[in-house]
Specification:
Radius of gyration: 16 Å
Number of strands: 8
CATH architecture: 3-Layer(aba) Sandwich
CATH class: Alpha Beta
Mean pLDDT: 93
Strand order of the largest sheet: 3-2-4-5-6
CATH topology: Rossmann fold
Number of domains: 1
Distance between the termini: 5 Å
Strand content: 25-35%
Shape: globular
Largest sheet: 5 strands, parallel
């Protein structure tokens, strides 16, 4: 199978910087923002976006993570998913604008599970979605508010996101497709 890199480390950094500026512009500043990542790589991305938001605005933006394992609708087919910790900022999420962060948006099922998890944790004022890669193929009516890169793919292709903090290198690659 052929693999091609579509985002380098510099491209990822640039995309996260752009997303951070878009989040601040959309929210009219950092007030009331909470950034929550979906494990595993979404947490790394959320921490980076949170750091960028704090750096740009000069105000600390709380970050955390939300585990969606028990809210997934595919547990019968894939029961070996390991649960990850949910970490909410001290103030919680009630009344906050929560920016959910994930690495790849595909069918929308992970985001639906995250929305269910959030409703069990509190009542945010609004929920926004930031993803590094949107590859299409939605099965649910879910759309990202902030996208690093739109990568239309075929169902036969796979997207691999590798990030420092989880992996040895940093890139986004596509594997498979017509020429494999």
């Amino acid at each position: 199978m052929s693999t091609r890199t579509v985002l380098s480390q510099a491209d990822i950094t640039r995309a996260l910087t752009r997303i951070s500026h878009e989040v601040l512009e959309s929210n009219r500043g950092p007030d009331g923002l909470v950034v929550l990542g979906i494990p595993t790589r979404g947490v790394v991305l959320a921490e980076r976006i949170g750091a960028q938001l704090s750096s740009i605005s000069g105000v600390a933006v709380p970050t955390g993570s939300v585990d969606v394992t028990m809210y997934r609708d595919d547990l019968r087919r894939n029961p070996t998913r390991a649960s990850q910790p949910t970490r909410l900022p001290d103030g919680g999420i009630d009344g906050a604008t929560v920016v959910l962060v994930d690495d790849v948006l595909y069918s929308g099922r992970t985001i639906r599970a995250a929305l269910d998890a959030l409703s069990a944790l509190g009542r945010p004022r609004a929920v926004r979605l930031a993803v590094l890669v949107d590859r299409g193929h939605r099965e649910l009516p879910i759309r990202a508010d902030f996208v690093g890169k739109n990568l239309p793919t075929s169902a036969a292709e796979r997207i691999f996101v590798r990030l420092h903090g989880v992996d040895d290198d940093e890139l986004v690659a596509i594997e498979g497709g017509a020429d494999s």
